[in-house]
Amino acid sequence: MAAADVSAALITAPVPLSDWLVALPLAIPVLAGAVLVLLRQQLKQPIIVAVAALLAMLVTDIALLARVLQQGPVVMYMGAWKPPFGIVFAADVFGTSLATLATFIALLATIYSAADVTWAERRFGFYPFLMLLMAGVTGAFLTGDIFNLYVWFEVLLISSTGLLLVGSKKPQIDGALKYGLLNLLATTLFLVATAYLYGVLGTLNMADIALKVRAAPADTPLVTIAVLYLVAFGMKAAAFPLNFWLPASYHAPGAGVSALFAAILTKVGIYALIKTEVLLLGPVSAHFAPVIAAVAGATMLTGALGALAQSELRRLFGWLVINGIGSMLMGLAIGGEAGLTAGIFYALHSMVTMAALYFCGGLVEALAGTDRLTQLGGVQKRAPLLGAVLLILSLAVAGLPPFSGFWPKVLLVKAGISAGSGGLVLVLLASSLVTTIAMGRVYLFAVWRDAPDAAAQTGANGPRSPGASVLLPTLVLTVLVVAIGLYPMPVHELAARSAAGLLNADAYSHAVLGGAP
Amino acid sequence: MMGTVIFRTLSPLISALTLMLAVFVTLRGHNDPGGGFIGGLIAASAFALLGLSHGVPAVRQALRFHPMSYAGFGLLLAVCAGLLPIFTGRSFFTALWTFPQVLGVEIALSTPMFFDIGVFFVVSGAMTSIALSLEQRGGGV
Questions:
Q1: CA of A226: how far to CAs of A155, A215, A268, in Å?
Q2: Distances in Å between the alpha carbon of A196 and those of A86, A218, A220, A232?
Q3: How many domains, in total, are found in chain A?
Q4: Which of A122, A160, A184, A264 has the smallest CB count inside 10 Å?
């Protein structure tokens, strides 16, 4: 049987070793996960493998980011099949910055949860799930193929549901059910939208989609597809009115895992949303910008009001995540380079701050033995450093200077005013005020006042003084929050380059499709 | 029902045949219908059958390692097959082929084959793990 000549469809030029930077951040966690599953009874300290893998990922991510900043998108054609038929990995500034930051936070979260993870949780695969989660996150941020993005979303969903369930406590099962079902619905919607897109344009390669959308005849039903993506990714990102799964599930696992979820998972949704609505379907999504604006405003307000109404610490933080998603959506709604820069800056800030806040919340809960605001108290007396950290993070979340939340909000206000969306700016400022009050309430109850009797009793039973492995990640992130606030230029540069890359679809398509026909 | 003499006598034979079929289906999968996924499912059904007739502990003992360890091994094998092209200056997951002559017979070895064998282990390991723990818990099926 003569084999068909397939060489015409293959890339035959040798691939420089540096291009492997795109594939390695993905291969490393999968390899580490495989080793962790294979040797789960032999390994006494599986965390060492996990931390080593995350460090290796971080190094490759940083090297990749340096290369992307220098020479534009780095592309690898998987299996050497030429685009638009093969699956392409295309690292641009936007995806690579988010992947790098996500890996950094995952490293800290792993160290943070080391003391928390029980033997049973290890037995049921905490670390393999963590590795799989990071593979999914990295894959989603680096892929250049929309169906492949769907696959990474599935990987993310499976591994995050696994992480939610590890331990099998009742609130975890309750949270995982809500999380799993609603996210499954979102990924199914994503799949439907992608099938529709493929039916209309006949391609799944993002660069090729960007080109074909811009050349498509006017009667192509692209608005339908763009709105389907908006609903699917909006659900993933917990945008109003599809946000209720988030506060119902994020408090269920240990503080380290909820920090990881709050920092990363919704941002993958925002990333996918911005990438499809700007880079791929940019000319189309301008038609329903008012819808995005309304969603953004409603998300900001519900997030802030929800935080004000909550009385459990980590559920309250969940609403703050939603509030941040609203601000990022506002950047998308304003659009243009200024709006997107502000939105992406906000995403980077939010990843760091929310992770730090969940870390800090975990410490406060461990100290007081409760997560109810009504029973918390006395942190200032027992752990003044923790009180100071919580104050800094509260101000950062509310967007007050001189912390990291201030600059993206300034940029958002500026972009909003110059784009003539004064209403959104008003909502942003109002929601910031409500957030300030909500966080002031947390600070007042948890830190400032003396511990109420009930809490003092439970605290006396078993006050756990935090160890270095828990304190250090919290402090590192808090220092980062202050540093970004005092010296925002590098982060602004990353956000601005990301936005410029998203708006220049031609350059992206050219870099990815290159010399291919 | 499950403990009848006929079933207990025949099930090792059927399991052995099923495992051979699984290997056959996996290896023919490159150009013909089959492949690691289907092969893995067939292999898992063989172990599940043996678990019904001879009890789960017997199957676990016969497997020597925990089924999930097989799945981890398969994942390792599949990714390593994808990483091999790094040494020849090609992309991730590029297919590499070699045709050595063994005793005058040409044998086609390739990275996709090792990837497929990896998939076989992932699927058979994971499905066997699920099936055995269900059988252990459920008592009568």
A1: 23, 16, 17
A2: 19, 17, 11, 14
A3: 1
A4: A184
CA distance B11 to chain A (A): 29
**Is the separation of the CB atoms in A299 and A243 below 8 Å?**
yes
Helix (H), strand (E) counts: chain B: 5, 4
Q: Is residue A12 part of a domain?
A: no
Instruction: For residue B86, list chain A residues with Cβ-Cβ distance below 8 A.
Output: 17, 20
Best A12, A15, A21, A124 residue to mutate vs chain B (most B CBs within 10 Å)? A15
Residue labelled with tokens 């499912």? B41
Q: Would the CA dihedral through B110, B115, B118, B123 be positive or negative?
A: negative
Q: Phi and psi for A427 in degrees, rounded to 5?
A: -65, -40
Write the CB contacts of B32 (distance below 8 Å, at least 6 apart in sequence).
none
| Domain of residue A357, residue span | 18-513
Identify residue A66 by its one-letter amino acid code: A
A339 found inside a domain:
yes
Cα-Cα-Cα-Cα torsion A49, A51, A53, A59, nearest 10 degrees, comes to: -150
Those residues of chain A that have pLDDT short of 50 are 1-2, 455, 457, 459-461, 516-517
Cβ neighbours for B2, distance < 8 A, ≥ 6 positions apart? B52, B53, B140, B141
Q: What is the mean pLDDT of residues B45-55?
A: 91
Please answer whether residues A134 and A81 qualify as being in contact, where contact means their C-beta atoms are separated by less than 8 angstroms: no
CB burial of residue A111 (10 Å; 0-12, 13-18, 19+): buried
Find all residues with CB under 8 Å of A116, minimum gap 6, and list them.
A254, A255, A256
Of the listed ranges A56-65, A215-224, B52-61, B92-101, the one predicted with least confidence:
B92-101
Q: What CA dihedral angle connects A98, B77, A130 and A143, to 10 degrees?
A: 20
Residue type, A283: P
Residues on B contacting A at a C-beta cutoff of 8 Å: 66, 68-69, 71-73, 75-76, 79-80, 82-83, 85-86, 89-95
Beta bridge partners of A91: A74
In a domain, A326, yes or no: yes
Contacts of B95 in chain A (CB under 8 A): 79
A37/B75 touch (CB, cutoff 8 Å), yes or no: yes
Q: Report if residue A13 sits inside a domain.
A: no
Count of residues making up chain B: 141
Amino acid at A205: N
* Residue A284 CA: distances (Å) to CA of A227, A278, A379: 10, 9, 52
Question: How high is the pLDDT of residue A512?
Answer: 87
